[in-house]
């Protein structure tokens, strides 16, 4: 797997969601929202359900959708509030396994779908190469990764707790995978904390069969 090179890591401010230590308000506010569009596009490319991993599942909206479609899901998030919220929603669904740990420390079993919605850019930048290698290795042949990464023009890219990648670095990261969708978002928008500029890469990539 190619190394994509050093990410851009800011050190100027932590007054955005990127600097949050308590994610409970975010989980509460987003609980029950519709699954992300890119995730829906990816999951509907499968003919039958299989095994999925959700990295940084937050409120668990995509996890609940996967369970409803008959998938078996390993949901991983570092925040105990996320686990409490998901257990409240999923009850004792036999298809669900929950692990509360940092994504960098999570052992990944084989999976047909790995989803990481707005989570990977909060991991340790200096350990991301290893994490990405684990993600690619965990995908079964024909399996898909779906998620997003931040670009350098995103408002959060100035935070010390977030790293960003250029488009060239993202494309290098995806070498060896079949890129089914790579949409670059670069526009003014909003977050939980008000106006922000979004610069993100929304990815669907398939491991060759």
TrEMBL record:
Membrane spanning residue stretches: none
Entry keywords, A to Z: Methyltransferase, Transferase
Residue span, Methyltransferase type domain: 53-145
Matches recorded under InterPro entries: Methyltransf_12 (IPR013217), SAM-dependent_MTases_sf (IPR029063)
Domain of life, per lineage: Bacteria
Classification via Pfam families: Methyltransf_12
GO biological process: methylation
SUPFAM superfamilies given in the database record: S-adenosyl-L-methionine-dependent methyltransferases
Molecular function per GO: methyltransferase activity
Annotated protein name in UniProt: Methyltransferase family protein
Organism: Stackebrandtia endophytica
